[in-house]
User: Fold this.
Amino acid sequence: MKHESKPAVVLLSGGLDSATCLAICKDRGFTPFAISFRYGQRHSIELERASLIAERAGVAKHAIINIDLGAIGGSALTDVNLAVPKHELASEIGTEIPLTYVPARNTVFLSYALGWAEVLGALDIYIGVNALDYSGYPDCRPEYIEAFETMANLATKSGVEGKKIKIHTPLIQLSKSEIIQAGMKLGVDYGLTLSCYDPGETGQACGHCDSCLLRQRGFDQLGLADPARGK
Amino acid sequence: MKHESKPAVVLLSGGLDSATCLAICKDRGFTPFAISFRYGQRHSIELERASLIAERAGVAKHAIINIDLGAIGGSALTDVNLAVPKHELASEIGTEIPLTYVPARNTVFLSYALGWAEVLGALDIYIGVNALDYSGYPDCRPEYIEAFETMANLATKSGVEGKKIKIHTPLIQLSKSEIIQAGMKLGVDYGLTLSCYDPGETGQACGHCDSCLLRQRGFDQLGLADPARGK
Assistant:
């Protein structure tokens, strides 16, 4: 294990992407502080997975923040009145933004990460967004991340003092299979990760939602079995 | 009362500035949706005032969001181990960012407002930040607000669909006394507002914190008594 004094805040959902992102952050010599959110998501079992992943990665601290995103509604992931769409890859059927989009989610999450970074004196934030094998969410695009970074440097003490805050997106240009390859080299146990939008109560992936399909295709392209399947 | 169909989300703290901002939003013909935050602040009595102000203004809805900002610490406003500084106007004693600065607070608040705006189909967000008689917080400056707006338009469905989200800051270039004048013309009852960082349990202003001093000077310059004094 490499250790340097530089702390970094890492957004950790319990999914495949953020687990890989955490491993990359650590491999680059940062001391990771993981942050996860309980935001009224249906798939809150992912938080248990996030805790396991954080523990295995030996993070300096894992903060789970309760937020009220469900109270403002608007997504199949938080609104029990909307069904999670199955059998369709939004990124392949056009430019439509899918029903599983959560309003301003990454903006809210990154804002908390920014606040924590400022308290820790950290200048580095890691987020596992991906602009290729993603689900058509506007807040996963490189231009969004750049704009957030610009704003963050105007919002904070660090920015005013001329210390630059950096939002790291190591996965942004990788395909799902490249992400899996990168993570396997770093020893990520994908058996712990959960990517499904609509898992069973004990954490079985549905196998049919957008997120499951993208994940399955990633493992298929590598000729590998998903270690989380059948769990 | 003017009413149009255009909804706007208004950040409402219960203080003098945000009460004025709400009145201006309404006067401009928007249907206001007020949003307030319970974030571990010592001065949570301001939320009771926010509710009264929202009710009097006849907002379409008043959402109070519970957030965990206290959990990441770092400010005299949320951390009971830090004392609220008295008898010093940060904006006058130099460029130091004061202890009462809450990390990423406006960024977190605006992010929630953005999420709600998106759910409501609103393109307008009002925030009562002020760049003159303020307390030296970086996230009250015009360049910060512009950067947030740019980011917001990249983060959201509306932005992707070419509908422009606007962050309105009607108070940003006004002095405290000009804010009070504007509000009085619109019938704001400043007796309901509470600006103190460290009020008593029943809502008496301390009279000595940064926020109290700025407020008092505003009324003094107009030769008016603060209707909230002695309450």
Summary: The helical segments of chain A are 16-27, 45-57, 105-120, 142-155, 157-160, 176-185, 210-222.
